[in-house]
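Possible regression after last week's pipeline update?

I re-ran a chain I had predicted before the update to compare outputs. Posting the input and the new output here so someone can diff against the archived version. Not blocking, just want to make sure nothing changed silently.
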Amino acid sequence: MLNIYLGEMEKAIYHPPVFFDNQYEDEWLLDNLSREMIADVDKSEVVGPHLIESSVLGPISPTNLSGGVKTLILMRFDDSHIFNASACGDNCAKWILKIAEEKDLTINLLHLMDFGGETFEAKILNNGKLVHNMQDFVAEAVYYV
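New output (post-update):
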């Protein structure tokens, strides 16, 4: 289940890419879902835990991944923190929904992320309401972001 807190959140990590650079573990990058997210969002292939082959930049280290991918990987593996998903572009929204299918995921958003035209389920923590599509989400989020 996806839980979304809209607006400023005291305990959220607001700079997930910096947090990732100092906290990630090698095995996170070798996970199949991480590989898929890296391929889709960054158009890059994980060669090993210390080498990513970027279609744009060539060989890079994991610390050179995009902020969006870093945030997604943190959401997948770090259950002790809440991350600011506004560090992600809308191209990460489908992956946030995918992670939330596998586990309860709480994120912080400071903008109206586009979760697409398909149905989804998310709980707005600010008011406890469930939303099932973008129309519902926008109707609730407009009060908080």
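Follow-up from reviewer: compared with the archived run. The two ends are 21 Å apart (CA to CA). Marking as no regression found.
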